[in-house]
Design a protein that fits this description.
alpha/beta; Rossmann fold; 18 helices; binds uridine-5'-diphosphate-xylopyranose
């Protein structure tokens, strides 16, 4: 099939490459000329494992091209909308500027029978609004809402082998003409058994925000338990192991630590609350305020704990922060808890050095006032305290005996609870986890 993908960020670039991998002829469109020139040269504009290899692989077939010219969408059978919906400045709601602009820009290029497929995370009701806009211009085109559940760091695999497909169509019916077309797009993963659910438009939109709210709630639940464990002298990691063995609960997303960040969970729960308010259903989501508050408290807690561990205040203390990305295997620093903590410590008079295998460029653009050092050994030299804030594999594997000779004082705060306390203590370190005795 001929496919256009509008928006080539974390979602769209991966989607375009994966659709070409599935055998389709794909054009990726973005307003950012630098991104397009990178992608055209099979270079990923951000760090995502496997993406660059996939780009090289599919570009050799000639099935994948990139352009800034929206008119290149003309002639495609299916148009995916993959642009961002960031949080509005000064408000909780989602900024719909890019989704609206992408749709309006696409209208003149739509032909009868075309499918417009929304993948961006949007406030419920957006799809119905866009559907009527589209039908005014091209009554024989169809809008489908097909939310994307990919995780950064696993984006290629999540796109090629998703847990499920959700198709939201206007009448919610399997017989809707768009269903068969989208089935053809996803023929290969469907053939290997990926389940597919057909719903109406608002349900499909809500599936995405509900899923992300549930995940955020699960993380904040275990972080609330961490607060309690600290007060009671218990260990939240063993608590999570034990409750996670109940398969109604499950161990995934029960890692207590400095909380969630990134370009999705924080802004999605806020936009969801804002939208619920507009719909007169704000009471239903007041618990998400608490989820957000528990999450933000983690960051303050780490700053306080660092002060406590330093003994005599933060002023002039040399702090080394391991990790800047919001999670490992990503260079994304949007709403990164690690960077937010680093910046708060710096504001309170500490001398903060940050290291990260992939995210230093993005981090330096976001917080230029912090000091960034690529090499871990160098970053750790003469540190008064070390904070592990993003659990990259290489930080999990650090040797406490070797490091004890590099730092000024062997003190470590494990913000992700991934180190073995006994091993670090045996090597002479003062070890603190979060929610652990
Ligand atoms: C998330 C959803 O998982 C994905 O389905 C959706 O499409 C987009 O949003 P992503 O933002 O890539 O994906 O990251 P995710 O792996 O969900 O992690 C989010 C944040 O939660 C990270 O900061 C991570 O460190 C944190 N987290 C995750 C925890 O603190 N504890 C956990 O147990 C799990």
């Amino acid at each position: 099939m001929r496919i256009s993908v509008i928006g080539c960020g974390y979602l769209g670039a991966v989607h375009a490459a994966c659709m070409a991998k599935l055998g389709h002829e794909v054009v990726g469109i973005d307003v950012d000329a630098r991104k397009i020139s990178d992608l055209s040269a099979a270079k990923a504009p951000f760090y995502e494992p496997g993406l660059e290899a996939l780009l090289e692989d599919v570009q050799e077939t000639g099935r994948l091209t990139f352009t800034t010219d929206m008119s290149a969408a003309a002639g495609s059978d299916v148009h995916f909308i993959c642009v961002g919906t960031p949080q509005k400045k000064g408000e909780n709601g989602a900024d719909m500027t890019y989704v609206d602009a992408a749709t309006v820009g696409l209208l003149p290029h739509l032909a009868a029978g075309n499918l417009v497929v929304g993948k961006s995370t949007v406030p419920v009701g957006t799809a119905a609004r866009l559907a009527s806009l589209i039908s005014e211009h091209q009554p024989d085109a169809h809008l489908v809402w097909n939310p994307e559940f990919l995780r950064e760091g696993h984006a290629v695999d999540d796109t090629l082998h998703p847990d499920r497909f959700v198709y939201g169509v206007s009448d919610g019916s399997e017989e809707h003409v768009a269903v068969a077309v989208l089935d053809e797009v996803y023929a290969s993963p469907l053939a290997s058994g990926t389940p597919r659910l057909v719903t109406d438009l608002p349900t499909a939109e809500l599936v995405k925000t509900a899923a992300n709210s549930f995940l955020a709630t699960k993380i904040s639940f275990i972080n609330a338990m961490a607060e309690l464990c600290e007060a009671a002298g218990a260990d939240v990691t063993r608590l999570a192991d034990a409750i996670g063995m109940d398969d109604r609960i499950g161990r995934k997303f029960l890692h207590a630590g400095i909380g969630f960040g990134g370009g999705c969970l924080p802004k999605d729960i806020r936009a969801f609350m804002a939208r619920a308010g507009e719909l007169g259903a704000d009471q239903a989501l007041t618990f998400l305020r608490e989820v957000d508050a528990i999450n933000m408290r983690r960051r303050t807690r780490v700053v306080e704990l660092t002060r406590e561990l330093c003994g005599d205040g933060l002023l002039g203390k040399r702090i080394t922060v391991l990790g800047a990305a919001f999670k490992p295997e990503s260079d994304d620093v949007r709403d990164s808890p690690a960077l937010s903590i680093a910046a708060q410590l710096q504001l309170q008079g500490a001398v903060v050095t940050v290291t990260d295998p992939k995210a230093l460029g993005n981090a330096a653009r976001r917080f230029p006032e912090l000091q960034y050092v690529q090499d871990v050994e160098t970053a750790l030299q003469n540190a008064d305290i070390v904070l592990l804030l993003t659990e990259w594999q290489e930080y999990r594997e650090l040797d406490p005996h070797v490091l004890a000779r590099t730092v000024a004082a062997p003190r470590i705060l494990d913000g992700r609870n991934v180190l073995d306390p006994a091993k670090w203590r045996a090597a002479g370190w003062l070890y603190r986890g979060l929610g652990r005795p």
